């Protein structure tokens, strides 16, 4: 079922303020700007995010005069669902239109004790990681606040649930399309909105931002937003990581690792870092690589998540065998490192880790991708 903005009139689009992506501070500033009391921010936030209401006329605890004022000054946009796919294992994937040329993908993974929503932060990705389908689509632009949180809003609608009655989305991970820490202007307010008790009320342990290693933004995240952090590591040394995760050339391991140690430094609220390591057959899955990883992670409060590679068209990589994955895991266990093997979910609908592709009008030449991310963090 598509969910679209209520007012599509081209003549007023540019004059209205979008409320969907606003965190509490932004809503507070908006209501003060139109001469309304501060408590209206909490009221409207609850209507939007806890009750899934985008029609001001249905916000019954607001006066009629205020509702009319809101209709003139603001709107609540939600993007259109282009398609929905359901995996045999219960995973659901939505293709969501964010503009006339681009679509993103959002995935819901149900489990016995949780429901995880994997959301996108960019249209495509500029980092060009060798084993990721999203990277092969190119890069178009950053998603705005409302386009990021709208994925949660739309998923709640599609799942027939909201935070007030039988919550189905218990965890949100920024692990979809894009590099979240190259879009901190929009990702950070959304993370705060997810944890706001007047919105989705998720604990900081249930909101995870994953990064390939944008070091300045990791430092900024530590200071501004208290959430869980995952690092897409995928290699235990610089030469191999340069090949698999090209941002390593700008922020090599000797720069990245101190930032990770700082993120979970004593006295800070963070519990641990999740280290993501995709298993590529005879590329990064040798016993020697496992021992290198043990040495690299020494002293870091972390857990390691080994991820079976999920193939996509024209990739040169193969998935490591179960024997090689378990052999790799044993080395880490023997070093007392908490290491799990991720269960592949949704691969029959291309919704597994590394498979999200969406529909992207690439605005960045493949050879210029690295230039883009360098300028974005400078």
Structural class: alpha/beta
Shape: elongated
Give me the strand/helix succession: EHHHEEEEEEHEHEHEHEHHEHEHEH
Oligomer: single chain
Helix share, percent: 25-40%
Amino-to-carboxy terminus distance: 41 Å
Mean pLDDT: 86
* Low-pLDDT regions: 1-14, 366-378
Q: How many strands?
A: 14
Sequence of strands across the biggest β-sheet: 3-4-5-6-9-10-11-12-13-14
Strand content: 15-25%
Radius of gyration: 21 Å
Largest sheet: 10 strands, mixed
Describe the protein in words.
The structure is a single chain. This protein is an alpha/beta fold and 378 residues long. It is built from twelve helices and 14 strands. The strands form three sheets. Strands 3-4-5-6-9-10-11-12-13-14 form a ten-stranded mixed β-sheet, covered by helices on one side. The chain has a two-stranded parallel ribbon with strand order 1-2. β5 (102-110) and β6 form a beta hairpin. The two termini are 41 Å apart. The model is unreliable at 1-14 and 366-378 (pLDDT under 50).
């Amino acid at each position: 079922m598509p969910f679209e903005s209520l007012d599509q009139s081209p003549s007023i689009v540019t004059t209205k303020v979008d409320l969907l992506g606003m965190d509490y501070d932004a809503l507070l500033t908006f209501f003060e700007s139109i001469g309304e009391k501060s408590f209206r921010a909490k009221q409207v936030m609850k209507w939007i995010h806890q009750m899934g209401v985008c029609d001001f006329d249905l916000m019954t605890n607001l006066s009629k005069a205020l509702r009319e004022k809101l209709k003139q000054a603001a709107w609540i946009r939600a993007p259109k669902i282009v398609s929905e796919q359901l995996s045999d294992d219960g995973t659901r994937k939505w293709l969501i239109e964010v503009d006339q040329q681009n679509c993103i993908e959002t995935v819901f993974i149900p489990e016995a004790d949780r429901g995880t929503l994997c959301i996108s932060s960019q249209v495509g990705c500029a980092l060009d990681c060798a084993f990721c389908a999203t990277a092969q689509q190119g890069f178009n632009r950053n998603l705005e606040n409302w386009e990021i949180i709208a994925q949660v809003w739309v998923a709640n609608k599609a799942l027939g649930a909201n935070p007030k009655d039988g919550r189905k989305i218990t965890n949100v991970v920024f692990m979809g399309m894009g590099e979240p820490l190259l879009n901190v202007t929009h990702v950070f307010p959304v993370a705060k909105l997810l944890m706001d008790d007047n919105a989705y009320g998720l604990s900081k342990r249930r909101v995870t931002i994953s990064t390939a290693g944008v070091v300045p933004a990791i430092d900024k995240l530590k200071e501004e937003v208290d959430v869980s952090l995952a690092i897409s590591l995928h290699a235990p040394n610089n030469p191999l990581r340069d090949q698999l995760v090209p941002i390593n050339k700008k922020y090599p391991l000797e720069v990245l690792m101190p930032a990770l140690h700082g993120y979970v430094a004593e006295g800070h609220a963070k519990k641990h870092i999740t280290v993501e390591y995709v298993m590529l057959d005879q590329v990064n899955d040798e016993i020697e690589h496992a021992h290198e990883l043990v040495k690299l992670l020494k002293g870091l409060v972390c857990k390691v998540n080994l991820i079976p590679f999920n193939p996509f068209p024209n990739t040169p990589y193969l998935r490591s065998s179960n024997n090689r994955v378990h052999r790799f895991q044993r080395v880490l266990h023997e070093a007392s490192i908490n290491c799990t093997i991720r269960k592949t979910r949704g691969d029959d609908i291309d919704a597994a880790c590394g498979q999200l592709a969406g529909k992207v009008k690439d605005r960045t030449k493949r050879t210029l991708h690295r230039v883009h991310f360098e300028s974005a963090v400078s």
